[in-house]
Design goal:
Helix 10 runs antiparallel to helix 13 (225-250). The mean pLDDT is 86. The protein has 14 helices and no strands. It has helices spanning 16-23, 33-67, 70-81, 88-99, 104-111, 126-135, 137-149, 153-161, 166-177, 179-194, 198-203, 211-220, 225-250, 254-257. The chain has one domain (16-24, 31-257): MetI-like fold (Orthogonal Bundle). The protein is mostly helical.
Length: 259
């Protein structure tokens, strides 16, 4: 821990010891299981949120690009963009109010007789998944829309004329063509989810420990900037490695994702 006068001075150094502290507790030499678990948990949840976002956004983007009229597409785009005029913290807090035990969602579920009592959405991390998925819908929808929108509809019609079922049309025609957009959207959602701070703090359960919260505490609670910087770099390096692996699996170059 550095006092204010030492920040930026000769004692404010980033050494390999800061990275070692991620794996081994400096105090007693034991394995730093809490931070390692939080690191893995954040990456796994971010990957799950990415898959959930893709499952939601792909049908929407396809409808907007291939099936929807110009007026409907404009209305859908407006409906997607307007909520993002509000600050991310306010959006996360509003979702927390809706998902609370006495919130709107539970009142509707109990009013319709679907549940006998309130569902603990916030305690079992459902709120975390919902909040992160909702927070980054746009960055998944628009790359997918841009990719699918340029696809020649005659290719889809030809596949239908040849008797291809709808799922094979998407598997063999639409998705291969839209791979750059899929890779771009998945990359952005994963990176933003892993680095998110507001949604996990507002919507996570009482036992949820998000890795960026640990980094935040090192910087602004413990004032241990070297260790916070080391942890932040580890998260960045892991995200970049996973993104490069995903691009390799998609067989898409980094340049194709930014077109």
């Amino acid at each position: 821990k550095l006092v204010a006068a030492d920040r930026g001075g000769p004692k404010d150094l980033l050494t390999l010891e800061q990275y070692r502290s991620f794996f081994i507790q400096p105090s007693d030499g034991s394995v730093n299981g809490t931070h390692i678990w939080a690191f893995g948990f954040s990456l796994v949840v971010s990957a799950a949120v990415t898959l959930l976002n893709f499952a939601i956004c792909y049908p929407l983007a396809y409808y907007m690009a291939q099936a929807g009229s110009v007026q409907k597409v404009r209305l859908l785009m407006l409906g997607l963009i307007v909520p993002y005029w509000v600050n991310e913290i306010l959006r996360a807090f509003s979702l927390r109010l809706m998902l609370a035990s006495k919130g709107l969602i539970n009142q509707i579920l109990m009013g319709l007789g679907i549940t006998d009592g309130p569902v603990d959405f916030l305690g079992n991390n459902v709120g975390l998944y919902v909040g992160l998925s909702y927070a980054y819908l746009l960055v998944m929808v628009f790359p997918l829309y841009n990719a699918v929108e340029s696809l020649d509809k005659n290719q889809i019609e030809a596949a239908r004329d040849l008797g291809a079922p709808w799922w094979r049309i998407h598997k063999d025609v639409v998705m291969p063509y839209a791979k750059p957009g899929i890779a771009s959207g998945c990359t952005m959602v994963f990176m933003l989810s892993a680095g998110s701070l507001a949604a996990p703090q507002f919507l996570g359960g009482p036992k949820t420990l998000w890795f960026t919260s640990i980094v935040y505490d090192f910087f602004f609670q413990a004032f241990n900037w070297p260790r916070g910087a080391a942890y932040a770099f580890l998260l960045l390096a892991a995200c970049i490695a996973l993104v490069m692996l995903m691009l390799r699996l998609f067989k898409v170059s980094l340049g194709e994702t930014i077109k």
